[in-house]
């Protein structure tokens, strides 16, 4: 990330604004780390969940995993594939860490609980929440010039979810915030089923929101994740020539968002 900070400093020195930029790392399932020049965002971090999805030790986070950026940990809901209760212990080593959660009663001391359509801000970061079609919320985060949508478990799981799903997408559109990077589920949790209804929902959301980059997530089956993400990119990507689909191929893969494009590092 030193390059990002240096680029910002150089741009400032010549009187021009730095282009919004970020570094992203895929951990597993719906867990991502996003680093901007002044912030580190951790979305839906889990180390393990049934039956045997274990995050490799070199990708696990704790209170000593971070540099001097402000750390904000966002958890969309309390399902075991999105919430790892031990994250609360990170504050023992990193007292300034902030936790933002999408449900009351989360076992994380001092966490900010967000209600659907609520806005919360801190230290130059702004978070807006949408109501999920499953549990909890999804997050629209604007930080250091980059706007990120992490949908949590907000998906068109079946045709019956269409009205509720699209209502939240239209609410997001009404915020008039261009989305740089949008993360959406593309498969069910337990069986990793890429249902046509889910993919149709992502297509509809992309048509409404027009994110610069669309990122598939929520494939827990380690033996199928890369192939499903790749298949989504191949089948959905051509429908949106102005939207880049960035599909992770392995745990720990890193990307750079720069000039409106995602680059694999």
Q: How many β-strand stretches?
A: 17
* CATH fold group: Metallo-beta-lactamase, Chain A
What global shape is seen?
Answer: globular
CATH class categorisation = Alpha Beta
Q: What is the name of the CATH architecture?
A: 4-Layer Sandwich
**Helix-strand topology string:** HEEEEEEHEEEEEEHEHEHEEE
Overall pLDDT: 92
Low-confidence residue ranges: 1-17
Rg calculated over all Cα atoms: 17 Å
Classified in CATH, the superfamily is Ribonuclease Z/Hydroxyacylglutathione hydrolase-like
First CA to last CA: what distance? Answer: 12 Å
Task: Indicate the structural class.
Answer: alpha/beta
Going across the major beta sheet, what is the strand order? 8-7-6-3-2-1-16-17
Task: Work out the helicity level.
Answer: 10-25%
Detailed description of the structure:
This protein is of the alpha/beta class and 265 residues long. The chain has a single domain (2-264), classed as Ribonuclease Z/Hydroxyacylglutathione hydrolase-like (Metallo-beta-lactamase, Chain A, 4-Layer Sandwich), CATH 3.60.15.10. Helices cover 21% and strands 29% of the residues. Strands 8-7-6-3-2-1-16-17 form an 8-stranded mixed sheet, with no helix packed on it. Helix 3 runs parallel beside helix 4. Mean pLDDT is 92; it is low at 1-17.
């Amino acid at each position: 990330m030193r390059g990002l900070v240096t680029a910002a400093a150089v741009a400032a020195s010549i009187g021009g604004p730095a282009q919004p930029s970020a570094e992203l790392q895929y951990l597993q399932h719906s867990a991502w780390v996003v680093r901007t020049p002044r912030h580190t965002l951790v979305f839906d971090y889990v180390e393990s969940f049934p039956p045997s999805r274990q995050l490799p030790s070199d990708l696990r986070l704790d209170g000593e995993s971070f540099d001097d950026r402000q750390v904000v940990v966002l958890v969309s809901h309390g399902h075991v594939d999105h919430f790892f209760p031990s994250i609360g212990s990170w504050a023992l080593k990193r007292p300034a860490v902030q936790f933002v959660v999408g449900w009351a009663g989360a076992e994380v001391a001092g966490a900010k609980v967000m209600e659907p359509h609520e806005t919360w801000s801190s230290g130059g970061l702004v978070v807006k929440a949408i109501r999920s079609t499953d549990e909890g919320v999804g997050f629209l985060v604007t930080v250091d010039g980059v706007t990120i949508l992490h949908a949590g478990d907000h998906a068109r799981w079946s045709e019956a979810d269409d009205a509720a799903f699209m209502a939240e997408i239209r609410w997001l559109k009404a915020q008039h915030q261009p989305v740089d990077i949008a993360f959406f589920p593309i498969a069910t949790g337990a069986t990793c089923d890429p249902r046509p209804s889910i993919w149709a929902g992502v297509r509809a959301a992309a048509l409404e929101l027009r994110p610069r980059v669309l990122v598939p997530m929520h494939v827990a089956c380690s033996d199928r994740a890369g192939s499903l993400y790749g298949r989504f990119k191949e089948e959905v990507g051509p429908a949106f020539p102005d939207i880049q689909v960035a599909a992770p191929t392995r745990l720990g893969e890193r990307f750079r968002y720069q000039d409106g494009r995602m680059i694999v590092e």
